[in-house]
Amino acid sequence: xxxxxxxxxxxxxxxxxxxxxxxxxxxxxVIILLASNLGAAETLAEETSQLLTLLNGALPVARxxxxxxxxxxxxEADCDLLGVxxxxxxxxxxxxxxxxxxxxxxxxxxxxxAPEASAQAEIVVRKGEKLALRDFAKRLAEDFxxxxxxxxxxxxxFALRGGILDVYPLNAQMPVRIDLFGDTVESLxxxxxxxxxxxxxxxxxxxxxxxxxxxxxxxxxxxxxLPADTLIISVDHCHEDVLCTELHRAKVDELIxxxxxxxxxxxxxxxxxxxxxxxxxxxGATDSxxxxxxxxxxxxxxxKDGRPCLxxxx
Length: 314
Fold this sequence. Notes:
Order of helices and strands: EHEHEHEHEHEHEEEEEEEEHEEH
Low-confidence stretches: none
Oligomer: single chain
Helix content: 25-40%
Mean pLDDT: 89
Distance between the termini: 35 Å
């Protein structure tokens, strides 16, 4: 996919951000929702995910990419990073199953394992494969630094009992029980570490090694891992953040949602048609007898073409 010019949709009120993100990102496999804080980014990702499901029948996967700070410990931020990188490599995302990533300027530009190094620091286990369980456990402990515990309850731990190995990958949201029949992987079952109850079954498991923080491992900004058809949707004037300077120089498809009618320098401006809510009020100070019928006629015309119509209001 060729990279489009950097674009700015102007005149977009905040309550219409998700609708615009849904419309603009409908054909993308990865959508980045970039806001000034993670709370705003997560809300936008959640609302966009709901609309993609409702309107397109998509099954989005939403994740948050954090950075270590006073609120997020470095270990937790690294687990989030490894989880998102693993999804980018193995998630098989497409427009029907898009990956939505909530980011801030600090997290989208954070230092990450270089793309060529990431694939070398993981183990992939698949149902039906042969697996030497003792050797596998030894590799987890010695090469990946996972802790051997009686119960597997935290990321970076594993437990071995007979022909069953529980492992909590740093990149996963819950541990997985690897059950063998002889030396063949019979099942891979995620489970709740609090109740030990199975949460279904998966066909494959990716286990990532911890980040190498020695300073000698090759690194790159996170956005270097993004596939070519990724759309970065930026709100809250994030494009002005000095951390995004390197991002702007990269060949990425970037869309700004701007509440005012002015587009930033260097961005192609596309004005969004919108009507003030006050003009639709019956008997209001700015009541226009034509505004409401005109809006309904426009919506009806779109609906006749088979297109869904959203009315977004605060």
